[in-house]
Amino acid sequence: MSKLILAVESSCDETACAISQDGRKILSDVVVSQAELHARYGGVVPEIASRKHIETISQAAEQAVAQAGISFSHLDGVAATCAPGLIGALLVGANFAKGLAMSLDRPFIPVHHIRGHVAANYVAFPQLTPPLTALVASGGHTVILDVTGYTDLEVLGASRDDAAGEAFDKIARVLGLPYPGGAAMDALAQKGDSNRYSLPPAIIRESDYDFSFSGLKTAALNLLHNAQQKGQEICREDLAAAVSQTVAQSVVFRVIAAAKARGRKQIAAAGGVAANSFLRKMLKKECLQAGLDLYLPPLALCGDNGSMIACQAFYELESGNVGDLSQNCFATLPASQNVCRWQGSF
């Protein structure tokens, strides 16, 4: 018998609700964006994000149910992102979902946000199944994962400081680009020469798969500030292209190396930075050359959305990873951990 799951995603500044049927079939997907609200501050303000989630979450859930053509009583489970993310924002979504699950006498399914990003590929590509190597690159995370099963993931590498998306946003802000900066940087970079400026790779040399984007960010900002102090002009297009190319090079070769080391034939990318044209182009080129199958979700599934959480929730439910009303949320948590079994802090 098919299972219908309503999922809530509220880990940052998107209030998203979606309903999946048996995981991969998405019946509805509602996203209420806060981008315009936070743009005036140049970035997400956690307290404002949490308050906005409170204002919109009930309506988003009702819209998702209506779009799916069902009623709440038809649901077989209610899920929510419980880690990682802005803790206040997470708690709004999780507590709403727990309350709804309790009122319907249905299981509550806590979902890991990064696992959800991986699951965006299952929504986009019905033929895709583990094992595979996954790259999740977003505003808050840059992670390489060995995915042996839908709920069995191992973190092979991650950023030790800034995420790729965070570096894009901060550099974009200094370049005078609007928030969110990733898309604006990508558009500007299309007009530039990526070889004009030399920037350090965003890698940890003593580690095979870890990253560090703070050095890249600092180098780009210093280049801008030094030029300003000397009264020199910096070509914004060329710098944007150089940053984009450096991020892509830093990430792509490491994820391919990880796939080869684990004997994987499939690579799946996800997260907001997976929408970057430089990264997508290089992944396609290098995976083709390496004989690896590449899966890139459509742009609509790269950013935070409810569909990815609804899909992953189905597999968590199938694996028995169900939470109760005491379920907590966590600002940080490795994707290898089942959220409902995590009792401490990280």
Descriptive notes:
The mean pLDDT is 95. With 346 residues, the protein is of the alpha/beta class. It starts with a strand and ends in a 28-residue tail after the last helix. Helix content is 43%, strand content 18%. The chain contains ten helices and ten strands. The protein has two domains: 4-118 and 304-341, Nucleotidyltransferase, domain 5 (2-Layer Sandwich); 127-296, ATPase, nucleotide binding domain (Nucleotidyltransferase, domain 5), CATH 3.30.420.40. The strands form two sheets. A five-stranded mixed beta sheet has the order 3-2-1-4-5, with helices on both faces. Strands 8-7-6-9-10 form a five-stranded mixed beta sheet, with helices on both faces. The longest helix is centred in the last third of the chain and has 27 residues, at 236-262.
